[in-house]
Amino acid sequence: MSQSLPDKPLFIAFLVLLLWLPLPVGSNRPWAMVLMLCAVIALALWWLWLWQAGRVELTPALRCARWMFALLLLWLVWLALQLVPLPPARLAALSPHAAHFWAWVAPGQARPVSLAPYDGVLFWLRSLAYVLVFGLTLALVDRRERVRTLMLVMVLGGAFQAFYGSVMVMSGLEWGFFFDKDTGRGVATGTFINRNHLAGYLELCLSLGIGLLLAGLAETPPRNWRQRLRDWSQTLLGPKLRLRILLAVMVVGLVMTHSRMGNSAFFTSLMIAGVLWLLAARRRPRRGAVLLLVSLLVVDIFIVGQWFGVQRVMQRLQQTRVETEARVKVDQDTLAPLRDYWLTGSGANSYYTIYPAYKQGTVQGFYNHAHNDYLEFSVEAGLAGAALPGLVALVSWWMGLRALFTRRRRTMKGLGFAVTMAGIAFAMHSSVDFNLQIPSNAVLFMVILVLGWVAATRIRAEATKE
Fold it and tell me: What is the residue extent of each domain of the chain?
């Protein structure tokens, strides 16, 4: 028996947590964040107890990605240093603008670099949960059956969100998470508040589902009409059809969000990752993959999408003008604090505190987040601080891309495709929104980054063919 069997209940509990996180408005509420943090810490302590007792061992992926884990720990240290009180003279030498701010708020007192210390502590705790999720995924996903289970569970979670959001719109009930929606009426939001955050979540789940479907394609072409008929029957009546239906449900939900970048990022990343899959196929049969990718684009857009409002998405894209987009103006305003706090940052979760001082008169309304994850992380953490998680994301995505081209096992190649597609989609969407500020989306993205390392390393059951 494998030494990892004792952690099966832990793995199940981890999957339950991943399913729970998007339900309470993406866990983007203080009480939901506290539950997330407590649950993740409990799971981490559970694994440490099993490891200390010698019942589990370090996985190859965990050993391979240890330097990425170290960079994430360094990210936590960086965030903590922003909260350390400094004498006024030292603070002025390190961050003149922060010193000027605290001289106005609390003259003569030792204050930290962060301009929102309380919110910085909350962000540090949330980041701790993300880092622990990174480590737990490396430690628990140690065999191909667990890879498939994790991918399937997230597909089910995405299908539920899409189905729930679509039903709420079509029925006119317009409920969110056990309450009437006060925003986003008429579009699918699932149990999220913002349609763009549901779209971001579905992008990731769809990437995993398509990767799982590609992993199930036959590696050899049918030798005769009997084998071809048998393959078609298995496709029509077997698990592939059920998975294809779940993907169609998620596409319907994504279209009904009417999210411009959500839909654009999904279909663009699908086409790019699809081309990379075909290039990586080399001498392997490509007909099945071509038919699958074409069906995802043609059937979902021009048939399913026509029934569920793809025209409204196209109209919103056609009517988009850079000069009239408020997000573009907010991004332009955010360049000013970036110049002021490029070294030390203004402090985690401090964007809503500093932005009013830089907002121009043409921008209306209140913005607690920049609609650009790259800019917000750079302003709050400084360029050096933002580079730490950015490097982890880039290297992890590269490992998934490498697995797509180098691995022979179907499961690992499909997983490499999922990581590649999800990385492209989220990179695009993060340029106009703040999905990484939503705990459920950030956690799922962190899990997918880890799967890049899982796809690139040898795991258990490698000798058996799947």
Answer: 5-219+247-325+348-456
